[in-house]
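Study this chain:
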Amino acid sequence: MAKTTTAYIGIGSNLGDRRQYIASSVKLLAGVPELDLVRVSGAVETPPLLDAGQERYLNAVAEVQTQLDAHGVLKTLGEIEILLGRTRRQRWGPRTIDLDLLLFGDEIIDTPSLAVPHPQMHLRWFVLQGLCELRSDLVHPVLGETAGVLAARLNGSSFFLDSARPQLISIAGVIGAGKTTLAERLSEELGCRVLREPYDTNPFMPKVYAGRTELALDSQLYFLNGRVEQLNRGDLPAGQAVLSDYIFEKELIYARLLLNDEQLSLYSKQYEALRDAPATPVLVIYVRDSADNCLERIHSRNRPYEQQIRKDFIDALIDDYERLFGEWKACPVIRIHTSELDYSKPTTIERIASQVRHYTVMQGVGAVGRS
């Protein structure tokens, strides 16, 4: 007796009667003798990823059980697409129906005609949303994360791998969370450079932490200009990975906490004038920890100008970072608690680096998925 495998199929349409095309594809799937249709998620509407001139998509996910092998399922999906008028004149083009084999049990397949898991399903919120509706604890065979975790990284947005962009990976988190250590370890594993915050070169910051609040604006503008220079999109090579141990958007978080109203008004004008200059990260790694643990690290590294930092200041930073990433839609966000970072185990960094590679394109390394 043939082996039965549970598979998941992505269904999409943005031409004609989209709901009818999806319904027809489901009916045809149910009619395949070697395939049992188990259930179908609700349809979600999303904009096209690349061509803003296209119509919006309706997308759903079907769960099936089948005695076919993965290539047999792929062949069946292609036949259904042809029956429903799918043409392939252009990549990423509009289509009456699009059927993608997302997962085939826990198999990992990489052939010229088929890649499973689907190479960019972890970047597609509309796919992960459908999978979560059917089974949120389903584990991605390559990334080793559940559909629920992968969906949370996207926060309702979908993305695609773009080798024409600088592959900026930003490590975010409050002071003392361990961002720089993680950035340095990842840079060794990924073979890329790190852009570090210019703490030690800022002549104003020690005085600000010592109570010279009249210099807070000078300190923040020093950081702002330095970070714009470091992250300038015109200076970061396309397709090459680079790590930063901060995220540009932290500028406003610190400014709002450290500046008075008059200073903040002046600062905000400069920030608005420069905010579009830095490259947008393709991935953020958000490192989280408690205020007590962060404060302990700050004291143990013994930078003199940091010893006046208080727990309530770190608590306020944590709240602001949580708000920032609760609304973040610029790129995927991998959330890591510092307790997960056991650097004595080689697998710690290897695992994070492996995940980073699936969210980036680095000098041609990393497969760009099929449309």
